Amino acid sequence: MATLLYVAGARPNFVKIAPLLTALSRRSGLEHVLAHTGQHYDRELSAEILGDLELPRPDHFLGVGSGSHGAQTARALAACEQLLLEVRPDLLVVAGDVNSTLAGALAAAKLGTPIVHLESGLRSFDWTMPEEINRVLTDRLSDVLLTHSPEALDNLAREGVDGSTVFLVGNTMVDSLRRFEPNARERETWRGLGLDRRGYVLVTLHRPSNVDTPAQLAAVVRALVGLAGEAEVVFPVHPRTRARLESTGAWSTLVDGGVRCLDPLGYLDFLSLQLAAGAVVTDSGGIQEEASALGVPCYTLRPNTERPITISHGTNTLIGDDPAALRDVRIPAVEPTPRVIPLWDGHAAERAADVLESFLARSLARGRAA
Length: 370
Description:
Blueprint: E1 2-8, H1 11-25, E2 30-36, H2 47-52, E3 60-61, H3 69-87, E4 91-95, H4 99-111, E5 115-120, H5 130-141, E6 144-147, H6 150-158, E7 166-168, H7 172-187, H8 189-192, E8 200-204, H9 208-211, H10 214-228, E9 232-236, H11 239-248, H12 250-256, E10 260-262, H13 267-276, E11 279-282, H14 285-294, E12 298-300, H15 309-312, E13 316-318, H16 348-369
Parallel strand pairs: 1-2, 1-4, 2-3, 4-5, 5-6, 6-7, 8-9, 8-11, 9-10, 11-12, 12-13
């Protein structure tokens, strides 16, 4: 019996891990342990998403909480080390690029536990992004690197990563989307909010580059209020973004300016809003992917993206880091057309499960031989 430990701490991690955990649960001879670091601790960003994704209750909740990047990563590192010593897994699985991802990988590397990185090889080439640091270091520490697009293979090859450890399996986030898309459509969350289908722009912004600097945040608020004069703007507000808005007095400016500010939404409710949106404005990597898979026009408020395939094959448009560019957001008159992106077909988790099953078989055989 081989034991797999899955460490996740933020909403996107669970969306990516859920299909893989489900796929591997159908295989015999495997024990699965799920740990939630608590990096996202808001109900809609944490507990509710587990129910939406039909994930089991985590076996361990590490209670890391918020804080500066250094403090949060340090607490997650210490907690993951203790958990690894307790569970003694044969394999650690981490996903994405948040602080919990790096903390889990670093703790496992120091203890000699093999590491799987789901969503390896993404690069923005922007070292001011904490996520870029996390993803590059996690890839360097990992024994199995599961990529979701061809450019990720090129990135890893340029960095000298052993190609025999890299596997192009596709996008497990799209696996979750396809599995739960019927449920999300049936919810019609937009209707309950009194919105018109294809009549609103859905906004999500949380990156430090957009919300932590008062001048940039003020420019974002002005741009969103201006956009609200052209179309209904719906903004489910991330907890840290709300804290910045309230501390600067900009929250009331948004509300008074006609922006529909909502509390954070669960996975299914947010997906339901994406499905019926006329356009999406975001600085999130995962939403660039989801919008492309759904065919909804996406405007990314960043100067770069680690997901260029959403531009070359999807619906994503980089508008730079000047919020004034939001004046160019348009809701098209035609219905969205989901984009065909290689291996974003809803079966990435099965391909990833095949890779991990083979890796574990080889590892256990080597252990017996030794």
